[in-house]
Amino acid sequence: MGSVLLAAVLLEDGTYGFLRYSMPLFPNASLAAMNWISVLAIIGIIYGAWVAMVQKDVKRLVAFSSVSHLGFCMLGMFAFTVQGMEGSLLQMINHGLSTGALFLVVGMIYERRHTRLISEYGGIAR
Q: In this structure, what are the phi and psi dihedrals at residue 124, rounded to the nearest 5 degrees?
Protein backbone atom coordinates (compact mmCIF):
# COMPACT_ATOMS: atom_id res chain seq x y z
CA MET A 1 0.00 0.00 0.00
CA GLY A 2 2.95 2.32 0.60
CA SER A 3 4.06 2.22 -3.02
CA VAL A 4 0.51 3.04 -4.16
CA LEU A 5 0.49 6.10 -1.93
CA LEU A 6 3.94 7.07 -3.15
CA ALA A 7 2.93 6.79 -6.80
CA ALA A 8 -0.52 8.30 -6.50
CA VAL A 9 0.18 11.26 -4.24
CA LEU A 10 3.75 11.90 -3.18
CA LEU A 11 5.41 11.92 -6.61
CA GLU A 12 3.02 14.62 -7.79
CA ASP A 13 3.81 16.79 -4.76
CA GLY A 14 7.09 17.97 -6.29
CA THR A 15 5.63 18.91 -9.64
CA TYR A 16 2.55 20.45 -8.05
CA GLY A 17 4.84 22.43 -5.74
CA PHE A 18 6.48 24.00 -8.77
CA LEU A 19 3.08 24.80 -10.27
CA ARG A 20 1.51 26.13 -7.07
CA TYR A 21 4.38 27.79 -5.22
CA SER A 22 7.57 28.21 -7.19
CA MET A 23 6.11 29.74 -10.33
CA PRO A 24 3.66 32.22 -8.70
CA LEU A 25 6.01 33.26 -5.87
CA PHE A 26 9.20 33.42 -7.95
CA PRO A 27 8.14 34.10 -11.55
CA ASN A 28 11.40 35.76 -12.58
CA ALA A 29 13.55 32.98 -11.11
CA SER A 30 11.30 30.35 -12.72
CA LEU A 31 11.61 32.06 -16.08
CA ALA A 32 15.38 32.33 -15.66
CA ALA A 33 15.62 28.62 -14.82
CA MET A 34 13.34 27.58 -17.70
CA ASN A 35 16.12 26.33 -19.97
CA TRP A 36 17.91 24.36 -17.24
CA ILE A 37 14.75 22.73 -15.96
CA SER A 38 13.63 21.89 -19.50
CA VAL A 39 16.97 20.19 -20.19
CA LEU A 40 16.74 18.28 -16.90
CA ALA A 41 13.17 17.25 -17.73
CA ILE A 42 14.25 15.92 -21.14
CA ILE A 43 17.13 14.03 -19.51
CA GLY A 44 14.67 12.57 -16.97
CA ILE A 45 12.28 11.52 -19.73
CA ILE A 46 14.96 9.71 -21.72
CA TYR A 47 16.81 8.26 -18.71
CA GLY A 48 13.60 7.02 -17.07
CA ALA A 49 12.48 5.34 -20.29
CA TRP A 50 15.85 3.67 -20.91
CA VAL A 51 16.17 2.39 -17.37
CA ALA A 52 12.55 1.17 -17.37
CA MET A 53 13.17 -0.80 -20.58
CA VAL A 54 15.86 -2.98 -19.00
CA GLN A 55 14.13 -3.78 -15.71
CA LYS A 56 13.51 -7.37 -14.79
CA ASP A 57 11.24 -6.48 -11.85
CA VAL A 58 7.78 -5.23 -12.83
CA LYS A 59 7.53 -2.93 -9.79
CA ARG A 60 10.80 -1.24 -10.70
CA LEU A 61 9.58 -0.92 -14.29
CA VAL A 62 6.52 1.00 -13.13
CA ALA A 63 8.66 3.14 -10.80
CA PHE A 64 11.17 4.14 -13.47
CA SER A 65 8.45 4.83 -16.02
CA SER A 66 7.06 7.27 -13.44
CA VAL A 67 10.30 9.24 -13.64
CA SER A 68 9.75 9.56 -17.36
CA HIS A 69 6.11 10.60 -16.96
CA LEU A 70 6.90 13.30 -14.44
CA GLY A 71 9.58 14.63 -16.77
CA PHE A 72 6.79 15.34 -19.25
CA CYS A 73 4.91 17.19 -16.50
CA MET A 74 7.88 19.42 -15.81
CA LEU A 75 8.57 20.00 -19.50
CA GLY A 76 5.00 21.08 -20.15
CA MET A 77 4.94 23.28 -17.08
CA PHE A 78 8.14 25.10 -18.00
CA ALA A 79 6.97 25.75 -21.55
CA PHE A 80 5.14 28.70 -19.90
CA THR A 81 2.07 28.40 -22.09
CA VAL A 82 -1.53 27.81 -21.08
CA GLN A 83 -1.57 24.53 -23.02
CA GLY A 84 1.65 23.41 -21.33
CA MET A 85 0.32 24.18 -17.84
CA GLU A 86 -3.02 22.48 -18.50
CA GLY A 87 -1.32 19.47 -20.07
CA SER A 88 1.09 19.22 -17.16
CA LEU A 89 -1.74 19.28 -14.64
CA LEU A 90 -3.75 16.73 -16.62
CA GLN A 91 -0.70 14.47 -16.88
CA MET A 92 -0.19 14.70 -13.10
CA ILE A 93 -3.78 13.61 -12.50
CA ASN A 94 -3.52 10.81 -15.07
CA HIS A 95 -0.19 9.67 -13.64
CA GLY A 96 -1.55 9.55 -10.10
CA LEU A 97 -4.52 7.42 -11.12
CA SER A 98 -2.81 5.10 -13.58
CA THR A 99 0.41 4.51 -11.65
CA GLY A 100 -1.46 3.94 -8.41
CA ALA A 101 -3.61 1.37 -10.21
CA LEU A 102 -0.53 -0.24 -11.76
CA PHE A 103 1.08 -0.68 -8.35
CA LEU A 104 -2.16 -2.25 -7.06
CA VAL A 105 -2.15 -4.69 -10.00
CA VAL A 106 1.53 -5.50 -9.39
CA GLY A 107 0.71 -6.22 -5.74
CA MET A 108 -2.25 -8.40 -6.75
CA ILE A 109 -0.12 -10.41 -9.19
CA TYR A 110 2.67 -10.71 -6.62
CA GLU A 111 0.22 -12.18 -4.08
CA ARG A 112 -0.80 -14.83 -6.60
CA ARG A 113 2.61 -15.67 -8.11
CA HIS A 114 5.01 -14.65 -5.28
CA THR A 115 7.44 -13.07 -7.72
CA ARG A 116 7.80 -9.73 -9.46
CA LEU A 117 10.19 -10.96 -12.16
CA ILE A 118 8.79 -10.29 -15.62
CA SER A 119 10.38 -13.48 -16.95
CA GLU A 120 8.21 -15.54 -14.58
CA TYR A 121 4.93 -14.11 -15.88
CA GLY A 122 4.71 -16.25 -19.02
CA GLY A 123 1.17 -17.57 -19.48
CA ILE A 124 -0.37 -15.18 -16.97
CA ALA A 125 -3.38 -14.63 -19.25
CA ARG A 126 -4.51 -18.18 -18.50
A: -70, -20
